[in-house]
Specification:
Blueprint (H helix, E strand, L loop, with lengths): L3 H18 L6 H7 L5 H14 L3 E4 L2 E4 L4 H14 L8 H8 L3 H14 L1 E9 L5 E13 L4 E7 L6 E5 L3 E10 L8 H4 L12 E9 H4 L12 E4 L3 E9 L2 H8 L5 E5 L1 H19 L1
Antiparallel strand pairs: 1-2, 3-4, 3-7, 4-5, 5-6, 8-10, 8-11, 9-10
Helix pairs in contact: 1-3, 1-4, 2-3
């Protein structure tokens, strides 16, 4: 449900979007008319609120302009707008509720508070060879939602290079220790995942070139799979170039295209795909 406060926030972000798209175009009266005849005083309050968010919006010669907007501010505005307009269901929520019951909402609230406080979480995730839950100490960084799943992202054992993704529905137990993490600087998740295919942030970094048939390439050329990708159209093919960490997720995605794709480089990726394809053939001959 959109509250009046949320409605104001949505309008403020839409005002910023309008002025960014057409700087020096809108006056206060123009914006008042464009947003349902709200008062000029409301427009001024909206501009003041946007400045408190870090949006440098000002009226010059009675027309609104926005100076250069920082990427982190833009990220916050987009994420907020998407969140306030989100009406789709969390697909695996029933599994999470089955795990945590009436504590489900509280778990999310407490994790978000732990993130802001850099509080250590004690979680049980995964099963050891002896059949016992594996206990881990995690400094939470973020909660990430993909199309299908929700992940807790954190650092294990206060080590800044051990970023892990934990599926919420696979969390066996979670405790809030109240102890502050020793990690001084939390990593930038967007920078960590820039070269990652999917949720796995490990793997060696390579320049990958994939040549798709024209038919298959039509289905990928207008999609963004990874920040570093470049798409080139050739006469009879679509070429995808990217700097990416080699991972099982990437290999599985490529293999899913079957004969519609050829790995131009690196050779190590092509050989790994051939190896896995041969293993599949051998197993299915039995």
């Amino acid at each position: 449900m959109i509250t009046s406060q949320n409605s104001d926030l949505l309008r403020q972000i839409e005002i910023a979007a309008s002025v960014l798209e057409k700087p020096g175009f809108y006056s206060e009266s123009d914006l008042s008319e464009a947003f349902g005849g709200i008062s000029v005083q409301s427009i001024r309050r909206d501009a003041e609120k946007l400045r408190s968010f870090g949006v440098d919006i000002h009226s010059r010669k009675q027309k609104y302009n926005v100076d250069i907007i920082r990427i982190n501010v833009l990220n916050d505005l987009i994420c907020t707008y998407l969140a306030l307009n989100k009406n789709d269901a969390i697909k695996n929520l029933n599994l999470i509720v089955k795990k945590f019951g009436d504590k489900t909402l509280s778990i999310f609230v407490k994790i978000l508070k732990a993130i802001s406080k850099k509080e250590i979480l004690e979680i049980e995730y995964g099963i050891s060879d002896s059949g016992e839950p594996v206990r881990r100490l995690v400094t939470p960084i973020n909660i990430s939602r993909t199309q299908r799943n929700i992940y807790l992202i954190g650092l294990e054992n206060d080590e800044s290079d051990k970023v892990r993704f934990y599926l919420f529905e696979k969390l066996i137990d979670i405790k809030f220790s109240g102890r502050k993490s020793k990690v001084k600087y939390l990593p930038d998740i967007s920078e960590l995942s820039k070269n990652s295919w999917g949720t796995y942030t490990g793997g060696d970094l390579y320049n990958v070139i994939l040549r798709f048939t024209k038919k298959a390439g039509e289905g990928i050329k207008n999609k963004i799979y990874i920040e570093t990708q470049e798409i080139e159209e050739e006469k009879d093919a679509i070429v995808m170039k990217m700097k990416v960490n080699l991972s099982y997720e990437l290999i599985s995605w490529i293999m899913g295209w079957g004969g519609e794709v050829y790995v131009v480089e690196p050779e190590i990726l092509r050989l790994e795909i051939l190896k896995r394809a041969k293993e599949i053939i051998i197993k299915n001959k039995k």
